[in-house]
Specification:
This protein has 23 helices and 26 strands. It is of the alpha/beta class. Strands 17-16-18-19-15-20-21-22-23 form a nine-stranded mixed β-sheet. The chain has a four-stranded antiparallel β-sheet with strand order 1-2-3-4. A four-stranded antiparallel β-sheet has the order 5-6-7-8. The protein starts with a helix and ends in a 17-residue tail after the last strand. 33% of the residues are buried.
């Protein structure tokens, strides 16, 4: 078979093959990779060595590997295809049997061996997994998948293994590799040999074989590129090599943040196939027990878990993009139109993508995707440059002005972004309304809101990211609870994990209050200000602190307070008089008439009594007939030469 490959590679250049498949290359022999979606060329060819390489997805190989991957066929068929396309005479070599044809013949001859039955495998398992028998080699044949592209044989006489060369069949994959991303939510058993994988699948499990402990690196590479659809169950052989490999694999899976447990499926036997031969019922029970163990650690659906088991369960806490403020999940920022919520979202993304502080809060450096769906490219660029203030944008901050609706292909588009930028941990959708779908017939607003946002929350939880929605407030104010002002039904706040609101009592106010609440954060309110010269939101302080400052300023600037302080400023550090006398004093000291009536002044003095006390001034009043006299005196500790005398005059 090697003579076919050598002849084709000698006559077909990688540049010609790439062009024949319609891939355009630039003057530097670079182009868009045909094996994964990308916008920036990462595919290139090396004419001298007749190979291709993609620095995006990692695919590489010679001209035959390229044709095989383009047509998704085995290397021999790829070589024949190129020979036909470029008129390469391969003579009788074209009649060589392909891997698929060889395996089909072995499947027909499987009845000539009882090896599988001796290993405990049923006829149904043999048929389902396309097992075969090579009569000439006296060997069982194990295809790695139903696609019949790769296989291994094992002699029933001397137990020797045979696998096709890389040139013949490409790089060796994992046995039953596609099971890692199947539709089933059942756990995936990871074993060493294909026979062990077949044994577990016969007993009700889903299994993938490493085909030897060295295959652990392949598994890690696969799960790093794409997370498995369910937790893994590590059940390698119960020998020293197997346990050592299992421990190393655990470390790699932890770093890759892949869900897994370790479970001894084989009990006191060396591996699952030995347990199948000894006691099929025991292996079936062991597989079921492993599934229950996974359910206890990674509960799914409405499956219950004992409280005692929950206490012991190893459950990863949510990741934080902004510790104690923004965790993974679904978040929403609401504000009135033109308050500056898009500026805040842009500022937050830039801070997180660089690991810089945002409103005095630390951030965890992460990739960010900003969908500015109400902007054009020019406005988006202008805002970006203004927020950066002349700085350089981080490489892990991605932007777009287009996205489909929730009932369209939005989720698919996000998946494609993750394929190209797997570092993304934050997706900002500005605004929510731009991705809303069409309400279903007879569906109330609450149900629509909960269904649509629930889908986004499920996606965020699955990806372990934060989806951050930008939304509007309704015009009707509710100062008792600003969260009631979110436009739409209560379903929006109900489904979101974290809610932020920027609120101004008056549009012309310099400062705003940023209200924060959520499932995983403590409720807090901070006063923020948008600096229109720097295009940055900045924190002024907590709402409580600012309210204290406001009240203090209001007290200090009160004409009555200023007047009283001036009246008791000098010895005898006291004064008394009627409300009318005080009104005259206000005018004499401040130069402005008191705005209210004498009755109102008396009430205001009573309201100020406590604040005056803590400011070192005592206030009392006495009524005599229809008149009331007010007495003010500076307390001893506040008067340097206290006279201790209070003069009384008629009102």
């Amino acid at each position: 078979m090697s003579e076919i490959f050598e002849k084709v590679k000698a006559h077909v250049g990688i540049a010609e093959a790439v062009a024949a498949f319609g891939i355009q290359l630039n003057s530097r022999d670079k182009g868009l990779c045909p094996f994964h979606k990308e916008k920036t060329p990462s595919f290139s060819i090396d004419r001298k060595n007749n190979i291709f390489t993609c620095f995006g997805c990692g695919e590489t190989g010679d001209v035959i590997a390229f044709a095989s991957k383009m047509r998704e066929v085995e290397p021999l068929e790829g070589a024949k295809l190129l020979a036909d396309m470029f008129h390469v005479d391969i003579g009788d070599c074209a009649n060589r049997v392909s891997i698929k044809e060889y395996l089909k013949q072995c499947m027909r001859d499987v009845g000539q061996t009882d090896y599988f039955a001796k290993r405990g495998l049923t006829a149904a398992t043999v048929k389902k997994f396309c097992l075969g028998y090579d009569v000439k080699r006296h060997a069982i044949v194990l295809p790695y998948s139903s696609e019949l592209r790769y296989y291994q044989t094992r002699s029933v006489i001397d137990k020797k293994f045979y696998k096709p060369t890389t040139e013949e069949a490409g790089a060796e994959p994992l046995f039953n590799r596609r099971a890692l991303w199947g539709s089933s939510k059942d756990p995936i058993f990871i074993v060493e040999s294909p026979l062990c994988a077949l044994s577990i699948m016969q007993c009700g499990g889903i299994a993938v074989s490493l085909c030897g402990v060295n295959g652990a690196n392949k598994l890690v590479k696969e799960v790093k590129a794409k997370k498995p659809s369910a937790p893994l169950v590590l059940c390698l052989d119960n020998d020293e090599a197997g346990q050592k490999a299992s421990a190393a694999l655990e470390d790699d899976l932890k770093r890759a943040k892949v869900a897994y447990i370790v479970f001894n499926v084989a009990a006191d036997k060396k591996d699952p196939n030995e347990l199948l031969m000894a006691n099929p019922q025991a292996l079936t029970a062991s597989v079921a027990a492993a599934k229950r163990a996974v359910r206890k650690v990674y509960a799914r659906g409405v499956a219950s878990i004992a409280a005692s088991d929950l206490q012991e369960a190893q459950i990863e806490p949510p990741e934080w993009l902004i510790p104690e403020v923004l965790p993974q999940g679904l978040a929403i920022l609401c504000a009135s139109s033109k308050v500056g919520k898009s500026w805040m979202a842009m500022q937050m993304c830039l801070a997180i993508s660089r690991g810089k502080e945002f409103l005095n809060y630390e951030t965890k450096v992460s990739g960010c995707l900003y969908l500015a769906l109400e902007d054009g490219v020019f406005r988006l660029k202008d805002r970006l440059n203004k927020v950066l203030g002349g700085g350089k944008a981080p490489a892990n901050f991605y932007l777009s002005v287009k996205a489909d609706a929730l009932d369209g292909s939005l989720i698919k588009q996000l998946d494609e972004e993750f394929e190209e930028h797997p570092d993304i941990k934050l997706i900002v959708i500005d605004t929510l309304q731009k991705v809303r779908g069409v309400a279903k017939k007879n569906e109330i607003a609450y149900a629509t809101d909960y269904r649509e946002l629930g889908g986004l929350k499920e996606y965020a939880d699955k990806r372990k990211i934060c989806i951050f929605l930008i939304h509007h407030l309704r015009k009707m104010a509710d100062e008792n609870d600003v969260f009631n002002m979110i436009s739409g039904s209560n379903g929006i706040m109900g489904v979101c994990d974290t809610i932020f609101i920027i609120y101004k009592k008056k549009r012309q106010d310099d400062n705003a209050v940023l209200f924060m609440t959520g499932r995983d954060i403590r409720q807090q309110d901070i006063v923020v200000h948008f600096d229109e010269t720097r295009y940055q939101w900045e924190i002024i302080g907590t709402a409580e602190e600012e309210e204290k400052k406001r009240k203090k300023r209001e007290y200090e600037n009160n004409p009555l307070v200023k007047t009283v302080k001036e009246l008791v400023k000098n010895p005898p550090y006291s004064w008394h008089g009627s409300a009318t006398d005080m009104m005259k004093a206000v005018f004499d000291i401040t130069g402005k008439p008191y705005a209210g009536s004498s009755t109102g002044l008396g009430k205001e003095l009573m309201d100020l009594e406590t604040q005056l006390y803590y400011d070192g001034i005592d206030h009392t009043s006495k009524r005599s007939g229809s008149s009331r006299t007010h007495y003010f005196s500076k307390r001893k500790e506040y008067a340097p030469h206290y006279q201790g005398t209070i003069f009384q005059n008629d009102d």
